Amino acid sequence: MPLDPPLYLDACATSPPAEAVLAAMQAVHRQAWANPSSLHGFGLAAAEQLERSRLQLADLLGAHSEELVFTSGGSEAIHLALLGVCSAVPPGRLLISAIEHPATVAAASQLQSRGWQLEILPVDSCGTLELEALERLLQPPTRLLSLIWGQNEVGSLQAVEAIGRRCRAAGVLLHLDAVQVVGHQPIAFAELPVDLLSFTAHKLQGPRGIGGLLVRRGLALDPLISGGGQERGRRGGTEPVALAAGMAVALQLAMDRLNANGGRDPLAEPRDQLLERLLALPGLRLSGPDPRRAEPRLPHHLSLLVDLAEGQPASGRSLVHALWQEGVAASSGSACSSGAAARAGAVAPSPVLQALGHGAAIAASGLRLSLGPWLSLQDLEAVPAAVERALQRLRNEGSP
Length: 400
Ligand SMILES: Cc1ncc(COP(=O)(O)O)c(C=O)c1O
What we know:
The structure is a single chain. This protein is α/β, with parallel strands linked by helices. It is 39% helix and 15% strand. The strands form three sheets. A seven-stranded mixed β-sheet has the order 2-8-7-6-5-3-4, with helices on both faces. Helix 6 links the parallel strand 5 (142-148) and strand 6.
């Protein structure tokens, strides 16, 4: 019997908005709907509401409120970081890792076409940046490193403090894509040797359509969108006041959960239990860092490589479909790349799994399960049996 109601284990794709987030946004839509740039009382109320959200978010991230630029989400924040910083200086060399989100790859290739030299840094079989390769390139003309802090597909976390210190010593700017990290561990931007940090609301039960970029004070940044001079001239357009309020509530809820659990994400423990039970099933093995060996991994994230039989990798896409028939929502790799592959009608090997050293067939057999606070321990109890049934369904169909 499929699970009813179905379980949502795709937090890294997006997450259901929290009730408190919806309530806060509704109140702001009613009371502070005006344009924050208007000079009348309606506008002032909206401006005050927006600045309250900015202060709250900056405070929760250990940043100064003037360092926070609201964007439409993570992809825009990443583009603003890379294109905004790089268009303010003469072309040089830009470094990214081999396991970046497609938004970073796209922004980097725009810069390449504007005369920037792009170098892609390798990772090891766990998805950890190879520091020697980085060190060799931390010299002129390198100006910026953009790095995914928590990898959405394989869960690897980078040693950002050590990397940031090396960048600082070499005079290289560092941007972190922290989209999967914010809300899952405490962050003190003021203390991090990092210049820019991107995040988004919808991964932490906030609204879709808003995110933010933290920009270290004094750093020159050209806007992607100009116009009315909003966001201190760094992003034109009337600000989404209600979305900003929703994002602030979402991050507050996430930080409250962390604080109530000694700064650690309470999802790590159920994730570890689920992992152990899944690895007991035939044909499943872990990809990315191993939390049982204390290798740094996103606490709510679990990724597997799946074989239907000895040496016969499953199609991650087929498995996601079969799992949904069993009442479990999951992903194969990242939501955006699986969507693109589905439209092309192909079983696309994941470039991220390939960067970790896997061949094409294994790199198309990825399964990602990601947890959120809407799931109870009892919910998770049912997952291994559902995975087993989905695998059996594929074996019966003789599906690759
Ligand atoms: C690591 C990472 N970076 C960036 C993004 C893009 O964020 P958004 O969907 O808010 O544009 C995502 C979302 O999938 C992500 O997982």
